[in-house]
Design brief:
4-stranded mixed beta sheet, binds pyridoxal-5'-phosphate, 15% strand, 7-stranded mixed beta sheet, alpha/beta, Aspartate Aminotransferase, domain 1, Aspartate Aminotransferase, domain 2, 36% helix, single chain, 2 domains
Length: 468
């Protein structure tokens, strides 16, 4: 094997073969078949600016999947970079064990206020007033699950040890999050080591004006299941508005409200996993606020720092928080923590991100751009014989590629055609997209502009020619 040490940050073009060799043989990429990757042309990114990434061979790529769905302002937005640099000159890290630090205090306060703003039309002001930091989306979910279990235990509901989750849901790759997830291909090899959750259907509604026929049946099943498990369930966990990893499957309108109602009725907590849907990806900061449904616990990640630094956040209601109060000897305090929870650099980015969301009216922008993107896709590829019904909520978009028989729900293993389109878009237009099974997903930066939308739509439209 080649010597894998790199001595200089100023990489010259002639270094590419050696770097590519290391990239293919030493660096182990996530969710990637490395044997297949070894035959691809490595794209080694050197810098980013706006929606574009530039590789060490001086090529420019349009990042249409928002660096795994987290990009809010594109890459290296000068205001976020400045906030991080200013913070770095003062304090790069200090933990939240024993002491506190300024950026974490400021962010916690600002976040709670911003959540309040999202729920301003609700009958009661929200009680999501307690912010627990971790360092990625999976841990935000893991924290929520432990919080729910410890809460139920401490209010005397010791038989409430189970979770109700939804088919095709995805909540992350740690063991609790994996247990709550239900995309079989991701979890089947670990299944014997996972704990059992009760799964329910997630009724999909593609057209915002057309409720699916099956929603009543799903609703009845859901209520019956929750009633049957009424002394066993600790919490329901759901991706509100749209399931991401299962191929952008929008949730039936008002369904979240039904779930919340049953949670109240049967003493079960509602956890919304908004790691993907939150932070304006689907419009509001808190995705569930679109239907004025207030969860007991909400999980955030990805876009919270503008997508520039890793951070996970779990926000809990007063009711949950109060159950953790007691004497030290009662051991009621939350038994969880990470070294880098609430890292100051990530907090500084998140503080500026929150300010920018309001200063630049991001929520309104997402609404307008989402409409524009949807219309552009419909006009360019809506009637293509291989394109199924385009699924979209905000700037989370899925384009199902139909199989030869016209079916559009072929599942995760049927990725060949969507993969071909994405490969053509990359090869011919330098647009980075990622297929999920037979669905092409588009998750662009939220400040995307018309010219970038056009670039992505053209790349997909021409990429479809690869299907023959
Ligand atoms: C809904 C949802 N929850 C949790 C996660 C896990 O986040 P992370 O990759 O930061 O661990 C993801 C990641 O895609 C997600 O989409």
């Amino acid at each position: 094997m080649a010597d894998s040490r790199i001595s200089s940050r100023n990489v010259a073009l002639r270094d590419f073969p050696r770097l590519a060799e290391i990239d293919r043989t030493v660096l182990w990429h996530p969710y990637t078949q490395m044997r297949e990757y070894a035959h691809l042309d490595s794209i080694i990114i050197e810098r980013g600016e706006g929606p574009y990434l530039y590789d060490i061979r001086r090529r420019r790529f349009l990042d249409a999947f928002g660096s795994m769905w987290c990009s809010v302002w594109g890459h290296n937005h000068p205001e976020l970079v400045k906030a991080i640099q200013t913070q770095a000159s003062q304090l790069c890290h200090s933990s939240l064990f024993s002491v506190s630090h300024l950026p974490a205090v400021e962010l916690a306060g600002n976040l709670v206020e911003a959540i309040r703003e999202d729920f301003r039309f609700a009958d009661d002001p929200p009680s999501l007033n307690h912010v627990f930091f971790s360092d990625n989306g999976s841990t935000a979910v893991e924290v929520a699950m432990k919080m729910a279990l410890q809460y139920q235990n401490q209010i005397g509901q010791i038989s409430r040890t189970q979770f109700l989750t939804f088919y095709d849901g995805y909540h992350g790759d740690t063991f609790g999050a994996m247990s709550a997830s239900a995309i079989q291909v991701f979890r089947q090899k670990f299944a014997p080591s996972l704990f059992q959750c009760t799964n329910q259907s997630y009724p999909m509604q593609v057209d915002p004006d057309e409720k699916p026929d099956n929603w009543r049946m799903n609703d009845r099943n859901l209520e019956a299941t929750m009633a049957g498990l009424s002394d066993k369930l600790a919490a329901v966990i759901i991706e509100p508005v749209i399931q991401g990893a299962s191929g952008m499957r929008p949730l039936c309108e008002d369904y979240l409200g039904r779930i919340k109602r049953y949670c109240r009725e049967y003493g079960v907590l509602l956890i919304t996993d908004e790691v993907f849907t939150g932070f304006c990806r689907t419009g509001p900061l808190i995705a569930s606020s679109a239907e004025l449904v207030e969860p007991d616990i909400v999980c955030l990640g990805k876009g919270i720092t503008g997508g520039e630094l890793p951070m996970g956040v779990t926000v809990a209601s007063d009711r949950v928080y109060e159950a953790f109060s007691g004497e030290w000897s009662e051991m009621k305090h939350f038994l969880h923590g990470h070294t880098f929870s609430g890292n100051p650099l990530a907090c500084a980015a998140a503080i500026r991100n929150l300010q920018m969301i309001s200063e630049y009216k991001l929520k309104e922008n997402v609404k307008a751009r989402a409409r524009e993107f949807g219309q552009a896709l419909k006009a360019a590829i809506g009637s293509h014989p291989r394109v199924g019904r385009i699924r979209q909520r905000g700037l989370a978009i899925g384009i199902p590629i139909k199989d030869a028989k016209g079916a559009e729900d072929a599942g995760y293993m049927a990725r060949a055609d969507a993969n071909k389109v994405c490969a053509a878009a990359l090869q011919n237009h330098r647009v980075i997209l990622r297929p999920l099974g037979n669905v092409i997903t588009i998750v662009p930066p939220l400040n995307i502009e018309t010219q970038h939308i056009e670039e992505i739509v053209r790349a997909i439209s021409e990429g479809l020619k690869a299907l023959g």
